[in-house]
Amino acid sequence: MGKYLSIVLAMMLVTMAIAFLSPLDGGLREQPIYPLFWASVAGAIVVIIYGSYQNRKKQQELRRERRRRRFKK
User: Fold this and answer.
1) Residue range(s) defining the domain that contains residue 15
2) Is 90 exceeded by the pLDDT of residue 26?
3) How far apart are the C-alpha atoms of 23 and 32, rounded to whole Å?
4) Higher pLDDT, 41 or 24
5) 6-18: burial string, b at 16+ Cβ within 10 Å, e else
6) What end-to-end distance do the CA atoms of the chain give, in Å?
7) Where are the beta strands (DSSP E) in 1-73?
8) Chain-wide mean pLDDT for the chain?
């Protein structure tokens, strides 16, 4: 996973905590912000899937290059 995706994922984790904790006093919220929490969960899932998709494409390209080198010799 790239460094930008890691930063976005970290922000999603912080947002999940903010949904339940009040940033002003640090205590639990009386009424948690569930839409914010679930949006953060969905965003984190999207970031993880996209990161694995990028890694898979990169690995496929590396394998393709190795095969080309073997057959050219």
Assistant:
1) 3-72
2) no
3) 12
4) 41
5) eebbeebeebbeb
6) 34
7) none
8) 89
